[in-house]
Amino acid sequence: MRRCGRPRRCRSWRPAFRARGPREHSHREVASWLDAGTAPCRRDGANPWHGAAKTAGAALARRSTRAYDPAAFAQGSHPRTHYLMLKRILDSVLAVIAVAAVVGLGLTWVKRDDLVFWWASPRINYGEQPRTTIPVYLFAEQWAAHPDKKDNADLVPPGFTDNQATAQVDVFFIHGSSHFGFQWNAEAQDPAVKAVVDGPLMALDASVFNGCCRVFAPRYRQAHFASIERTSGNGRNALELAFNDIVRAWDSYVMDSNRGRPFFIVGHDQGAVLAQRLLDLRIEPGTRLTERMIAAYLIGGGIAERRFGGSFKNIKICETPTDSRCVVAWETFVAGTDPAEQPNAKEAWDNRAWTFLEEERRLCTNPLTWTVNAKGDASLHLGALPLGADIKISFGRIMGALPTPDPSRYRSLPALLPNYTSAECVDGFLMVPEPKHDAFKVGWRGDSNLHLSDITLFYGSLRQNLIDRSEAFLKTFNPDSLRAMPGAGGR
Description:
Layout lengths: L14 H4 L8 H10 L13 H14 L6 H6 L3 H32 L1 H9 L22 E3 L23 E6 L16 H14 L8 E6 L14 H26 L4 E6 L1 H14 L4 H5 E7 L16 E2 L8 E5 L1 E3 L12 E3 L4 E3 L18 E2 L46 E4 L2 E4 L26 H18 L15
Parallel strand pairs: 2-3, 2-4, 4-5, 5-7, 6-7, 8-13
Antiparallel strand pairs: 1-3, 9-10, 11-12, 12-13
Helix pairs in contact: 2-3
């Protein structure tokens, strides 16, 4: 084997060369040694690379005579240039993907409620859903609450009494949304639906009325919860079906059970939205029913202030704790919350058509003072009911399964918490300090949205106001001056 030149011309010995043979180095590496006049040597001075270097250098020269021409490199014809261009393109693509991911995450957070509603909404059109059974309201068992049967609307907190047996006034209560299934309307008599409606909804909401009144609460083919919070043709068709059940239940109540008695109409959430239409259809036209309505409580549903004196001529706003033939309304949030960024009922019935509440100012009655757009101190608060709805709606459950409450939780009610909260109407919404009790932090809406606690947070105050308003109305009400309504609708 040939020898290298003088030892000083050999490259220093490096461990990397020890593990690599002549054919394992690139042509460029070998050519660089030729240009420098150096090559890796063994310690004895033998140069195993000499022949390989010559061969590699010749091959490299044949491949491109401009291999190291700076001008060729600048013009992009050099292989190294192609590599750099590809690397630059790949880096740019990765940068675009990263920016798009960041922007996408930001938009997802901003539009998270829209995405949840889109994902949770039924994937079929309203006309494609299976037929549901039409409820029949002739018998007490078809109602979630009825004076002729035992139900959770009969429950009372310690120290209170169920007065339905002697009450001279009725409440027609329309419960809120509890349907998160795959169809636009729930089956009213479905066992899973009944477990929620007859359980927590009657115990937490409907029981507040038994101090003043007999309680009538129909089961109905409620619309999917997305129907009232996002406008759509499917959602409005679902609300139409739900309202058809409500108006039939109302007509059945008037014809079979009312017998000329004064009454309240109360709705929460979806129930408040449907109650607005019931007022428009059965009360506003100025019938004898109008004279017997003490008040309507539209809680957690939203109604525009401009309706009063507009499309409502015979129904006014309740401005004092004992006004009658009027409307009370509120929607509850933690102080400092922007309701526009929170899920809340936006569908409303106005002037014989569905409309969508956007920036319109809503009616806000303070349930501590029972006046409009007022502020109430905690000393006026008569008690919160510290019992949650037990409807833990996770992201998985909301996709079509109904939450199943524990029936044992609703066999009795806990003691009320008096002086628990203050409240203030701000821009049409009721704002309260953040509650500390876990019972008021339930549901998927977040801790700042107290929609599920609209009634329980003011349970004692609402119960007492219903009694006060009933007694004031009965002092001036002459039942002999009004005939019992013959036929459905009482016209």
